[in-house]
Amino acid sequence: MFGKLTGILMLAACLVNFGNAKAKTSETESSETKDYSYCGQGSQRTRSRVRRVIGGQDATAHAWPWTVLIMNYTTVFCGASIISPTFLITAAHCVGRNRTNISLYAGKHRVDERDLHEQKLVVKKFYRHHKYRAGNDFHPGDYDMALIQLKNPIKFTEYVRPICLAGVDMFEPGHECVLSGWGYTNTTVRRTSNILQEIRLPLVSEKVCNSNKSYGGIIPQRYLCAGVPEGGKDGCFYDSGGPLMCAHSDTDPWYLVGMMIWGSGCAQKNKYGVYANVAKQMAMIKDKVKDLPRPYSPTGYPSPVQTSKKDSGDQNKEKIFIAIIAALCVIILILLTTLCIVHFYTRGYICCTATEKRSYRHNRAPRVLHEQNGKLNGEVSV
Questions:
Q1: pLDDT tens, 321-348?
Q2: Catalytic residue list contains 93
Q3: Catalytic status, residue 240
Q4: Which helix (H) or strand (E) holds 200?
Q5: Set 62, 93, 109, 129: catalytic member
Q6: Which of 67, 90, 147, 374 has the fewest CB atoms within 10 Å, i.e. the most exposed one?
């Protein structure tokens, strides 16, 4: 009886452990699917209908969860983008060396309303590019890029997330990208927007942007251009530092290609918007930012190329553990079945009841005797 109970308990424990292992794996997968720390992870709101800050439209609330509002006291001043839990990126002319009168808000949509999902961010330190040269009405300057280090890490949620950083030549001229910001929506009424605006703009080649018809060679290699030759679509004043972001499809990660920095007027014919090229600033970014997130993939997990060796090892260990538990369950089940069969034809101590054992012992002797005499009658009394 003790052996029977032990076997049953072993099998039950085995099945429970196997179930727990599967549940743990499912729970891990579920939590990873909801992990908003992967960069470039948009939402249904991100895939909103984007048409044309001048020539644009109101963005759907929280469509661009990495866009940060920079306010100077109580007025819109610039934009920025979340690139890690502790760093934002913006234009250098948006932040002085020790600017203390600015406020930063992530998860913001309307300027005049406190958003349920917004987070007020506290600055620890500004890093302007050491080669930064300020622009003016006639020249965009150079190296107009800055990093904002935060005092406390951002809490990533469905409404506040980081954006990925684009590499060199990741998006070709002509690729349509999106600019977002709270700047002027027209040049007649000089007023910033109360609601985050969005506009779709194609990237423009350096050759076209620096042509005599456009800027005549004054745009540095560290910058890029976006817009349409006929004008009417552009960023404008107080959109500076805001993200120009691109994706290869609605389900792919969003990448920060540039930050709005300059333009000759706003939405003028052949005068494209000028942006600091993120790919050309990677040396400074990687030098300062040590917690850049991994890109999101459509399945909700980082792509195999992006997965670290440590994460791969952990996943493999889990799979091996589950396989071992499953194998042990099968082995224990086979052993119990074998023991039942063996003991049934010997003493029946494990798999038979007490009554069956007495009956079995009572009828075993005559059967053996007949077998020895070569007269097996095949009858068993119950």
A1: 778 888 887 888 888 777 767 666 665 4
A2: yes
A3: yes
A4: strand 197-204
A5: 93
A6: 374
